[in-house]
Amino acid sequence: MFVRDYMSTSPITIPVNTPVLEALNIMRNKKIRQLPVVDRGKLVGIISERELLTVSPSPASTLSIYEMNYLLAKMTVKDVLVKDPIHVPSSCTIEEAALQMRQHRIRCLLVVDAGELVGIITQTDVFDALIRTFGLHRAGVRLVLEMDNKVGALADVLMVVKEHGLNVLGVACREKDDGKVHVMLRLNAANADELLNDLNGRGIKVIYNN
Predict the structure, then answer these.
(1) Which of 36, 33, 127, 38 is nearest to 87 (CA)?
(2) Looking at the structure, do residues 183 and 91 belong to the same domain, yes or no?
(3) Closest CA to 87 of 44, 52, 50
(4) Nearest to 192, CA basis, from 168, 169, 209, 205
(5) What is the DSSP string of 23-78?
(6) Which of 47, 58, 112, 204 is the most exposed place for a label (fewest CB within 10 A)?
(7) In this structure, what CATH number is given to the domain that contains residue 175?
(8) pLDDT tens-digit readout, 122-172
(9) What sign for the dihedral angle of Cα 111, 117, 118, 121?
(10) Of 131, 157, 180, which marks where a domain is finished?
């Protein structure tokens, strides 16, 4: 799974001299929370709804409504943008993109190839990729197996699945601290009772079936 398969292409951008209020209106009208900022076609930063709201005067401010509007009309995104935003190439994997978001505590990543902004990927896009990987958008049976963490364990299970003529829609593994591994299988089947009996008969523990 790569970022290029899930990113939003041709993202909406704003010039660096865009007034703060105008940027906020664009976000609200387009229902987005971040906007890349460009200067003469070159990416110079990113601005989020959170940053724009923090520069708005507090309701407790002693400024009059006219003074506040005057100040906001003069303020542009150049004054509050995040410079040199974290970005990834379109060839980046989804898991690496998720790790970058988690480590830097950000909600999106700009996608840049050869110095050119080609897209943007958000947390929602990453979630969609994971849902698709696990096959949750398709009908089928979901199994979670507990097995010894050893070479060939997954291959043995997949061979049993193949013997029953079932197609695997998704696979995920989670290593445990006790030398065991949990394996999630999403199968293209309405019923997997025969497979369950076969797995149990071979000593493969099924801890979840839905």
Answers:
(1) 36
(2) no
(3) 44
(4) 209
(5) HHHHHHHHT-SEEEEEETTEEEEEEEHHHHHHTSPPTT-SS-HHHHHHHHHH-BGG
(6) 58
(7) 3.30.70.260
(8) 999 999 988 887 767 677 888 999 988 889 888 999 999 999 999 988 888
(9) positive
(10) 131
Rounded Cα–Cα distance for residues 45 and 38 (Å): 7
Number of separate domains in the chain: 2
- CB-based contact 6:98 (threshold 8 Å): no
CB 130 within 8 A of CB 95: no
CA distances, 139 to each of 20, 31, 134, 175, 187 (Å): 46, 31, 11, 26, 9
Single-letter code of the amino acid located at 144:
V
State the residue for tokens 């593994």.
Answer: 173
Q: Full-prediction pTM beyond 0.85?
A: no
- Supply 133's token pair: 């990987």
> For residue 36, what are the β-bridge partners?
46
Residue range(s) defining the domain that contains residue 118: 3-131
Query: Does 17 lie in the same domain as 96?
Result: yes
For residue 33, what are its two tokens? Answer: 């929370």
Distances (CA, A) of 179 to 51, 147, 184: 46, 9, 17
Name the residue with tokens 């293209």: 188
Residue type, 67: E
